[in-house]
Amino acid sequence: MNAGRFSLYLDLIRWNRPAGWLLLLWPTWSALWLAQGGFPGWHLLTVFTLGTVLMRSAGCCINDVADREFDRHVKRTAERPVTSGKVGVREALALGAVLALMAFGLVLTTNGLMEAVVLAEGIGRPNELDIDDLLGRISKYQDDLIALEDRMAPKRLIRP
User: d(Cα 71, Cα 64) in Å, to the nearest integer?
Assistant: First the structure.
């Protein structure tokens, strides 16, 4: 991969705009501290921090593919790599999949109970988020679906 392509991938995952993953880190870190009753340890802190950045980046890839037709008409987003055609749809989806698999690999480095909880959450949540996002594009009932999902979600395992 040449430097120009790498630069396009960094633009695709919005590396120059860290506000998105920084906003996701605060609740992630707070939950870790609460669940562990204090400092969670460097390993878990690293896994969840990198996982947050990787999954937000994967989401940017998928979002750009989903919004590519709409983004062409918006000045702020018209030059995004997928919208402008500098990165192909398959290429963006492949990058998103690789980033999500890297995050999954991080999960596998955690202990058994944590792994089971995170895997169970991880399998259900991306699908819910995709449905919410897509429903919001075609309907005014996105908030109703989110409320319904939260009511139907299984009780979370919490350490005493």
Answer: 8
pLDDT the model gives residue 106:
87
Residues 126 and 87 placed together within one structural domain of the fold: no
The verdict on 20 and 76 lying in the same domain is yes
How far apart are alpha carbons 116 and 108 in whole angstroms? 10
CA distance 81 to 6: 12
Per-10-residue mean pLDDT for the chain, 160 residues long?
87 91 90 90 92 92 88 86 91 93 85 62 55 61 60 45
Radius of gyration of the chain (CA): 17
Q: How many CA atoms within 13 Å lie on the side-chain side of 106? A: 21
Res 109: pLDDT: 84
- Same-domain status, 51 and 92: yes
Structural domain range at position 56: 3-110
Count of domains for the chain? 2
With a CB cutoff of 8 Å and minimum separation 6, the contacts of 38 are: none
Q: Give the CA count within 13 Å in the CB-facing half-sphere of 2.
A: 1
